[in-house]
Design a protein that fits this description.
The chain is α+β, with helices and mostly antiparallel strands. 50% of the residues lie in helices and 12% in strands. The strands form three sheets. A four-stranded antiparallel beta sheet has the order 4-5-3-6, covered by helices on one side. Strands 1-2 form a two-stranded antiparallel ribbon.
């Protein structure tokens, strides 16, 4: 179920980039891409090819460029916060006794920011390349939660049974998963009595992954235990952290609304895991509370009508 390793795969089509192919190499992630796959004009390729003979010219793929831009924006924001904190430290010179505790707290914050800037995986060139490679390796992976786990003792039998269960669950959401569609399958974590471990599935085709994720909500309408099964994308640690920050931002935005704003709109997090974004959604108008006095009047009218009907029968 595993493929032969491709020495120089194209970033787009995954085909092997041959020596005589028209291709360019990303100066950040060090991966190759065919000129036609990148839709690069011939003039641009000729300039890069000519410049390479005289020392080279830096070129980066779309993914690296987007990630580097986001990284630079985050670094600038961190620098801005550092400057703000340093200014606050400079101001605390008028009354040493009253600000000792504040200065101590600020120093701790500065030191923590500096330590985080060194330790943070995303705040170094090496970290960026590593994160990009990890995202590239995971982009066709799917995590399946709450799917029944085999109790076979033989590893090959467990893998076979996991595939049969996966195929059966996928068929319930109108998606066919064949053995040839899968690069690998493995359970994540140590086996315990608390429940089945997540099943990590490496697929070969993005279209199949998109179909699984799009149809997965249909499982909620099935009977248990199928209704408990969930398909999600396999995210890196940094991607999961970004999603948590987005959730916190949505929470703060909603808490910061005025009473009138809360009646008109709400902030939401939409999209799949790893592709989520914040959007503003309109709130449906509230239905007015029923008038108790009007209800009592209606009851009296109905009571009077029923009594009149009884008198006519007599």
């Amino acid at each position: 179920m595993s493929d032969r390793k491709v020495d120089y795969p194209c970033l787009r089509c995954k085909a092997h980039v041959k020596r005589n192919d028209k291709a360019v190499k990303c100066s950040l992630c060090q991966l190759w891409v065919h000129v036609t796959c990148e839709q690069m004009p011939d003039e641009c390729f000729k300039i890069l090819d000519k410049a390479n003979k005289y020392g080279g010219m830096h070129w980066s793929c779309q993914s690296c460029s987007a990630f580097a831009e986001k990284f630079n924006a985050g670094l600038q924001e961190m620098n801005r916060r550092l400057v703000t904190i340093e200014k606050k430290v400079d101001i605390q010179t008028t009354d040493i006794d009253s600000v000792k505790s504040d200065v101590s707290d600020i120093k701790e914050q500065v030191n923590k920011i500096k330590e985080d800037s060194v330790k943070d995986k995303g705040n170094s060139a090496e970290g960026i390349y590593s994160e990009l490679r990890e995202r590239e390796n995971r982009k066709l992976n799917v995590l399946v939660h709450n799917i029944k786990e085999s109790d076979k003792s033989d590893k090959d039998e467990r893998v076979k049974e996991d595939f049969n269960i996966l195929s059966e669950v996928s068929s319930q959401i109108d998606t066919e998963v064949r053995e040839s569609d899968i690069k690998f399958m493995t359970r994540i974590g140590k086996k315990s009595d608390s429940g089945p471990r997540p099943l990590l599935v490496g697929l070969k085709d993005m279209a199949l992954k998109d179909k699984l994720l799009s149809n997965a909500p249909k499982l909620a309408k099935c009977d248990e235990p199928l209704s408990e099964v969930n398909f999600i994308s396999d995210l890196t640690k940094i991607q999961r952290k970004e999603e948590n920050l987005l959730r916190e931002e949505v929470k703060q935005k909603n808490e910061g609304r005025t009473a009138d704003e809360a009646k008109n709109f709400i902030w939401k997090l939409v999209g799949r895991r790893g592709e989520r974004r914040i959007t503003k959604a309109s709130q449906p108008p509230l239905r007015p509370d029923p008038d108790p006095s009007r209800d009592r009047q209606d009851q009296q009218v109905r009571r009077g009508r029923s009594q009149g009907a009884g008198d006519r029968k007599k």
